Amino acid sequence: MVGQWTHATLDHEHVNAWLDQFARLGSAWIGKALLGQFELKAAPHLGALLSQIRVDDADALCVNREPRGGFKSADVIGNMLDKRFTGRGVYASPAEAIERYGKRQVVLFEDGLWSGTEAVGILDSMLGKRDHRLKTEKLNDPGLLQQVQFRLAYGIGTDYGQAVVRRALSDRGLENFQIACAEVIKVAHPSLLDLLADPTAKLDEVFDAGPESNLLRPYVFESLRASGMPDAEVRQVVGFCQDVGGQLFNSYLQTMCITRGWSPWPVHKSNRAATGMHGLALAHAFGHSIPKASLPLFWAAGRVEFRGKSVTWQPLLPNG
Question: 298: closest CA among 12, 72, 15, 26?
Fold first, then answer.
């Protein structure tokens, strides 16, 4: 499965080396349990998922090539769309489809909708409400966004991410938007979905750092419990992921502060991200990318310590 990762050549030796890190920290069984939950969807599978999204009523299909450039999911997804929807044409950004070509029924394709942070960033970038780290091109006339029929299309999405984006759309008066996910992962407690749907609820902290842990059903931990793992063992997995994952996420943040000029995060926000962005504890990846909502143990690197033992952690999916 990991051999389908496009950024490096991976084999059984690499996987065994990743598992050996758990053993060196005295927790070999945890590594095997987490690997058993891991899922990488290669390009053909993602393409098949995206093909399930309705496009027959759309004037334009588009991806989102971020203004900052670099290798992005948009390149992979755009190639898939070109092959699967021959003759349709795929625009490089929503603004290009809406503004330059006057398209009025637009479908924006992305690979995954996880915490909703990326989607909200795209909305605010188009509306001109985000002057730093733009996620997509601004619209010269933000009012056009209320005149189109717009569909946000994803291969995979979480119920939490969908609810976050629906709330963001409602707050911005964009009732003309739809969200379509070919596959949905449930990670939210019903009370969290109710909270996000409540127009009177103050949600600044949820949007910024994620919800309180009692409002989530973190994917990996709930999956292990559902598979029959005793609660005592699940708690050990959670503790390991929070401790080691927290160290790895902080190493990632330090790197981003140095290389990308990020500002330090508040402690409560980085603590929640110890098990993946917003605490979602996902175990998912595509052949071309792994979301930061997946456990840092899968994608991050750095020196970590656990119960008196230490290791220089290398990720299961190295990037570059």
Answer: 15
